[in-house]
Write a structure and sequence with these properties.
globular
Amino acid sequence: MDCYHVPVMLSESVDGLGIKPGGVYVDVTFGGGGHSREIMRRLGPGGRLYAFDQDADAEANAIGGEGFTFVRSNFRYLKNWMRYYGEERIDGLLADLGVSSHHLDDADRGFSFRFDAPLDMRMNKRAGATAADVLNGYDEERLADVLYLYGELKNSRRLAAAIAKARAAAPLATTADLLRAVEGLLPPQRAKKDAARLFQALRIEVNHEMQALAEMLAAAVDLLAPGGRLAIITYHSLEDRMVKNMMRAGNVAGRVEQDFFGRTAAPLRQLPGMPLTPSAEEQLANPRSRSAKLRVAEKMAGEGQ
C-alpha cells in the first residue's frame, strides 16, 4: 500500500468523518487505499464503503472483505454510481485531492519533470486528450490562460509563446521537449517550483480536475444525510477556494444566498478549528504533505430532504 502512496493526514481526516459503525461512506480518491483501510477498520457489520479511482493501477490495491466496493470511475460520476448501488444517502465522504506519490514516481506517465517521459498526464489512461495534445493543439492564448489559471504562473504569456515557437519546429512529445521549450523562462531561484506549477497546470487541464471537483462537491452535498460529513484535503489555492466556498455558501462560486428572513441558505457547517494542517512530524516524514489543508463540514438537519 504505502509504496504506492503515503496517505496524508490519515488520522485527522478519518477522525473528521465521525465514523458510525453501520454507516455508508465514500472515499472518492482511493489511490493506495490508506484512507479506505482506516475507514474500514472503524466500520462494523452492516457498514459500507465505496472507493472511487479512475486509474486502473489503483484497482490492484482494492480491499477484500464484506462492505467494500471499488468503483473504477471518475468521482464526478458519484451520484450516478450511488444511484446504481441503491444508496440514497451517505454518512460521509473523504477526498484527498493531491496527485499521488505513485503518479509522480511513475517515470512513464509524464506527471513529473524529474523524468524524461511521454507527455501523457492522464489519470485515466483509457481515454481523453494527453498533455501533448494540449501543448501542440491549443492556440497560444488558450494555452496561456491554462498556465495562468491552473499554474498561477505570472509569465504565462511568455511561456505560451515559447511553447508555440518550439512546437512550430517540431511537436512536443516528451517532458524533456517541454522543459527545453521553456528553458530560460524559469528563473533559477524558483525553477523547480515554477516547473512544478507548469506541470500542475497541464495535469489539471488534461484531467478536467476543477470541473470534476465542482460536480463531485455538489453531488456529495446532495447525497449527505443530516449530520453527515465531508472531509476534503486540498493542496493548492484553486481547489481549496472551491471547497471553502462550498462549505461556506453551498456552491463553489461562493455566492451567499439568503432566505426571506435573511438567513444564509448554506447546507453545510464547517467544523470549528478548520482548516487543519499536517503536524510538523508528518511534514518532515512526508514532504508532499507540506501544502495540505484539511477542511471538514457537516450537513445541517433539514437541508436537502
